[in-house]
From TrEMBL:
GO terms for cellular component: AP-2 adaptor complex. This is AP-2 complex subunit alpha-2. It is found in: Membrane, Coated pit. It comes from Grifola frondosa (Maitake). Signal peptide: none annotated.
Amino acid sequence: MAEALAEDVHRLLISPTSENFVRKKAALTLLRLYRKHPDVIPAAEWALRIVSIMDDMDLGVVLCVTSLVMALAQDHLDAYAVCYQKAVDRLNRLVVEHEYAATYAYYKVPSPWLQVKLLRLLQYYPPSDDPAIQTMLHEVLQTIMNNCAEPSRNVQHNNAQHAVLFEAISLAIHIDTNSPLVNTAAILLARFISSKETNVRYLGLDTMAHLAARTDNLGAIKKHQGTIILSLRDKDISVRRRALDLLYSMCDVDNSELIVGELLRYLKVADYALREEMVLKIAILTEKYASTYKWYVDTILELLSAAGDHVGEEVWYRVVQIVTNTEDLQPYAAKVVFEYLKSPSSHESLVKVGGYILGEYGHLIANDPGYSPIEQFQVLHSKSQFCMAPTRALLLSTYIKWVNVFPEIKPQLVNVFERYRHVLDVDLQQRACEFYALASRPVEDELLQNVCEEIPPFPPRESALLGRLNRKHGDTEDKRTWIHGGKEANLEREASRRMSRKPTLGDVNGNGTAATKLVISQDITNSLIGLDLSDSPVTTQSPASMPDATPQQSSAVLAEKGIPRLTAGPNVDRWFEKLLYTAEGVLYEDVQLQIGVKSRYHGHLGQVAIYIGNKMSAPLTSFTMTLHVPDSEALTATFTKIAPNILGSRTQTQQVVQVECKKPFKNPPIMSVSFLAGAHQTIAVRLPIVITKFLDGVKLGQADFFERWKLIGGPPRESQSVFPISLDASGHIDLVHQRQVVTGHGFQALEGIDPNPSNLVGAGILHMSVDGKVGCLMRLEPNREAKLSRVTVRSTSEDVAAEVQTLIQKPLGVDSMT
């Protein structure tokens, strides 16, 4: 049924003729089908069309579609990445601009259910690097927090506001734990954890635990440590669980002894449903923040004594590992565990620890008063009758070790082996028989000594306790990028995110961080000087060998990455090539849209204004503009604001792209424009942002030019190509056009350099923020008789030389000339 219905339901959802009620039902039906049978839904293929409905005018439709997008995006993050921009835009319209119908205000809160879903959806993605989205989202979160500064007397209003507020705080923590928003959130949370309402206390503790797990500054949370500890005794078990999570997350070296001590005291009276998780967390915190090994042993043994049946195997395994690997701790551990075993009732986990530690290290304390071999045997053996078969098997191994080190109690130990030879349990019987045979061998036999050698230290390994805790939490449908108690993972992810975050561009007019043009000719000339390079013979590349990717090839690569296929056509290519050497012009045009470009560059920074006009008599809805930069480490390009979601009939909108060149790059950014005009349409075009846009011309004399030309040398710092050209009606070469192309690419056309007046010579400096400045020299040599032209570019960077040569050749070629 799911296979048969999915296409029809999707058609009803995206159809502009479907009523809103039908579209809401269709979205929820698709969600149900996807949860039951995800394979029948081509989620990635439908992504853009489904996400576009998040711009719908009806908030009921948006709410249902957002629920669907939340489920699909968690499994297809890249395909649904555009929903991030849609969610921020819708939140801005709801919270800041108050753009909603009165029927969707719930106790004066605009559609709180939709706000919560949108805020949660944003937490599935890493924070955006787009400054426009960052600014808009910051304003939304600030407004939400300001709205909740003063509580209302209306309970329903408070509930709706709190639902939105706590999700907003979680998003603020997800974006940046050191932001002023998070400081404001910490103040609000401190008020909530002392609230008289159970739900508010629960949400306050839950969100504060999230903050504690992500932040590296716990000062604001520690101020309320007493209140949090009191919450362990709250009347509601859900609140007690959240208090436990928070104490676990906020524990560090400074407060570990206090928190662990409180948890141990509370463990004795805690609910049975909480005890297993408490034991795991106490064991993890004790190991993680132990100031001394003695405190660790004391705490863990007290935990084993108090927790009883709620102690998992991982806990006592870990104690054994640490004691085995810490030689100075072994005598102390043996004494302490012996004292615990002397109590009338000892849990089986404690007996296991005692059996192992006394068997390995009991001889270290055997000469101390009260710890003689016979006393150790009597205390440990008195517990065996209350233990299960696996524990008694472990105690038999302890006894055979004692046979080797305590010959004075060998008769008592052999007697135990004798009696166990006749038990029904196969494992116990086999061990007893083998140990009895070993113990009966002559004293001078070295076999027993070799078998009972001390166990070597364990190899370094990760604690199994963390794995057990994570398994206990399990997996949920909500795949946000954080979990309680995952402080290390969260901090590591946060650090890597900060390291990869792109810097905000400065003002290209010279304010902020923008670099100023060099005006000292000597500095520019010096930057062209090559290093210790050899002068290589010039070689010529044929056109077939040029590394020039066609739009079709680029589209195939992009399609594999989920980027829309490039819109191709002779006019599109011609417009793009013309914009490579001009500052403004048409980039794309059809019967519906016209896209124009106007740009300016200064050093390694640039601004590109994009004008998009709707030529139709009907508005374009669900209008979206996105940028894809193939090599984000070499080039950054971001919009300064989010595009309007509706482009009115016969109107124009302007978007500004801030650009920064960091390193040499080959592929220009791709701008994708999608909209609804009867059907969903997507146009993807290359922006004319290429490496030569960051070239500044430089004047050189004939001697300086050829000195540097020879110094740079031939390949690989030279790139050369021979290609056909067209002649004008009179049979002459269009030198004016050639000069326009060369100067448009940033070179300074140099006069009187080449003896042939038809040849064109140029020089320039490429500006990059990371790799610095690189010199470029070029020669264009047209041949009228052969109808060929040769362009040669030499640069101190071989990547730059090849790319610049390719870019200049495109608008000079025969196709472009005609």
